[in-house]
Amino acid sequence: MATLLAMNPKSFSAMALAVAAITMAFLVPTRSVGQAGGDDAALTVLVNEVAAQQATLADNQTKIDAKLANISENIRLARIYAGRSR
Asked: What does the alpha-carbon distance between residue 39 and residue 43 come to, in Å, rounded to a whole number?
């Protein structure tokens, strides 16, 4: 901190300007290669395909949950019947 106070005003302002320029260079958004445009139709097809796959996965997960609930109930009943036979 002492060196900042000991600097002359011109070098301090030059350093502050350089720091501001470097900071702005990192903060300014740039257009990426992925935003080239023209691929909107292909992107829409891919998004729709992924949405369909997610719907299929959700449906399959519902079926799996129902089967697990059925198996759990069968195991519970089997334990009840096994306990009665003793």
From this structure: 6
Paired tokens of 30:
């740039």
Distances (CA, A) of 48 to 11, 42, 44, 54, 61: 57, 10, 6, 10, 20
pTM over 0.70: no
Inside any domain, residue 68: yes
**Could you tell me if residue 19 is inside a domain?**
no
Tokens of 62: 């519902």
pLDDT band, very low/low/confident/very high, at 80 (cuts 50, 70, 90): very high
Domain membership flag for residue 18: no
Structural domain boundaries enclosing 41:
37-86
- Domain membership of residue 16 (yes or no) is no
